[in-house]
Prior knowledge:
Elements: H1 8-16, H2 25-34, E1 41-56, E2 62-64, H3 67-71, H4 77-84, E3 90-104, E4 112-127, H5 138-142, E5 159-167, H6 183-194, H7 197-200, E6 207-215, E7 221-229, H8 246-259, H9 264-270, H10 277-288, H11 296-307
Antiparallel strand pairs: 1-2, 1-3, 3-4, 4-5, 6-7
Amino acid sequence: MSFSDLDPQRVAEAVAATPPGPRHRALLEVIARAMPGLAFEVGATRDGWYRTGGIVTADGGRVTGHLRDWAETQGDLATLLADHVDDGYLATRLCGSTHYLVAPSGDGPLDFVQVEVDEIQERVHHALIDPGRLPDDLEDLIDPMDAAPVEPRPIGAPRYELRRVTDFSPCLEDGASRFCGDAYFRRFVTDWIASTASAVTRLHEHWVFTLVPYTDRFGEARFHVKPRPRPEEVGDLAGEGQPRGGELARLIHGYDRAAGYPMAWYFHLVAGQGVSHRLAEAVIEDQMGAYDYLPAKDLAVLRGWGQEPYAL
């Protein structure tokens, strides 16, 4: 399919109309119909985030679905507190998980499509106004750090919400689309291509990518790209007191076996996934001495990092 023909609004509507279910089977079917010819799977899930929700009464009646908008129309903070301190209002949060659906779209290292879908559940979270602990300012009212807790309970059913559809295939081309403006991400990909990892596996089989929007100095909307491994946890490689020589070689090769591909320890290092920079420096020192336990391609990548370290 051509992504120029994709209608994001229709995809978003189809996703929103799909009730969450076991293993997200219905969601995968909806995405498959929207993008025929691509075989999607759930690559990873990021849990534990939330957004400010709305306000309900003590018996569950809806006051507003948008706490922030409501608060900003109530006058100054003193007026808001005086008018509503006795109302017994409860604030809700939109508690979410982001599911990363991935599918190959060709043979190249970046020939894959990633669909990000949020699964959201609105829940009662805290008393909007606690007479024993009044907020310092409006932001402290909207999203307090130490709110008075109440018994959490869901408000309505969980739902899916489309966040983003990304075709990564043009990322290394001249004039690549805006989400590829992150130089460190591009270096991560070129390191992958230059290493032995690219010869034995596909990038999307081991990584998903979080896109963080920002505005550059020219006012253009762009994205930082943060790689996240599949699965999230492989283990840590501490940097202090680590072995050297043959024992260090066994350590990093064992890490690679657990991750499922060569040089995993290096890519986890630059992605900030529990591998110490000191360990990489120890491997470089080993390779400059009597030890030779890295293929030439991987050693070239590592030496490039040693000359100009980077991290995502």
